[in-house]
Amino acid sequence: MKGNISLKKTLGLGGLILFGLAYMTPMIVFGTYGVIYEESGGQVATSYLMAMVAMLFTAIAYAVMAKKIPESGSSYGYVTKVFGDKLGFLVGWVILLDYLFLPMVIWLIGGVYLEAYAPSVPSWFWLLAFIALTTVLNIVGFGVAKKVNLVLMILQLAVIIAFCAMAITIIGDQPVETSVVPDMNLAFVGAAIACYSFLGFDAVSTMAEDTQEPQKNVPKAIIWVTLLGGTIFAGASYILGAAFPDISLFASDSAAADMATQIGGIAFSSIFVATLVVAQFTSGVSAQAGASRLLFAMGRDGVLPSKVFGVLHDKFHTPWVSIILVGLVGLLALKMDITTSTSFINFGAFLAFIFVNLCAVFTYLRMAPAERTLISLFTHLVAPALGVICIAKLLVSLDSHAITLGMCWLAVGAALMMFLTKRGTKLELEME
């Protein structure tokens, strides 16, 4: 089913923003609240604000590069065009940690919640159902998936608003927690975890070839998704912190569900859990689509087998082989837990973010003096440089096991690159 090598352009600005938000999953702020609370010493809102600042600087760099290079491939494509094929391959390899394993984590979380909700049905059934349904939707085409995302996104936002509204009504009724002392180091540790919630703004760039007027719409969508997502995360976590200053009595993994029960009873808690599962589904659709576009771009460029990854379905014009592969990787969740599978996702994302920021800086240095305006100074140099500093701090704040596993993955990628180079595989791409 080779077809031609042109993806079908079905997304406008609104659809692209919806894709990014669905990938990001606004309700993830509830799913990770307890974990970030523990790691940050209760400074959840501060952690999200720190993460948002770092992500905004990086989003500006992504917007700059998306305008200059409107192709699928995201960070891999940008680094390849700016710094060369070999470094591009390595960045593409590390970002696979994010794109390949994130769908698996999303499906795993959904399966765990559904198993808790319906104990008589094993989690593997829910996991297989998630993978099968999202795979079919993505092969048929994102034109169908975006309609599903719209309905489910509205449901997510409604539950978020209801949750926060009910939480506001009990602010002042809870005992004030005085033991939480501001600690910037702990806040950075929390921010490193909170960045997981933002993964999605960068995935917008992978859909460039699915988008109408990509040089105009992709940069706008990247910034909008980061701002909207960050506002939801920081705002919701601030309200939860005010309503529940001490959650030590709640289990960290299910803290939000316990809070939902306390403010709205069993009925609201059931709605909350059901919507959280639905949110995981929408995120899975977008995550699988983004991962398949990255594999398609690497296959089309010849750094992965082009006859396998660089082909599109004749009828639907989607990278069907890559979509199926991402679904198969998701089956690893049958033998993994959430903690293990999420341990090194952020390592790959942070490393890729640093290089995209450097791409923007390098692009500025190559600009003619007449093109260097005050706006380009900020968007191409100042913001990306600050992005590098912020992301580097978050990178070293990751768990030591995550850094070790990430470095091992990077070493495997370097060995694979040397093997492909010796075989004469085409890694060279001309500068556009």
What this model shows, in words?
Its main location: membrane. Keywords: Membrane, Transmembrane, Transmembrane helix. With 432 residues, the chain is an all-alpha fold. It has one domain (17-423): Amino acid/polyamine transporter I, CATH 1.20.1740.10. 73% of the residues lie in helices and 0% in strands. The protein has helices spanning 13-24, 28-31, 33-40, 44-68, 75-83, 85-117, 123-140, 142-169, 184-198, 214-243, 255-300, 306-309, 320-330, 338-342, 345-365, 374-396, 400-423. The relative contact order is 0.21.
Summarize the structure.
With 432 residues, this protein is an all-alpha fold.
Topology (SSEs and partners):
Blueprint: H1 13-24, H2 28-31, H3 33-40, H4 44-68, H5 75-83, H6 85-117, H7 123-140, H8 142-169, H9 184-198, H10 214-243, H11 255-300, H12 306-309, H13 320-330, H14 338-342, H15 345-365, H16 374-396, H17 400-423
How many domains is the backbone divided into?
Answer: 1
Global mean pLDDT: 81
Distance between the termini: 29 Å
Determine Rg (CA atoms, Å): 21 Å
Membrane topology: Multi-pass membrane protein
Organism: Marinomonas ostreistagni
Subcellular location: Membrane
Keywords: Membrane, Transmembrane, Transmembrane helix
Distinctive features:
Amino acid/polyamine transporter I; disordered C terminus; 73% helix; mainly alpha; 432 residues; 17 helices; 0% strand
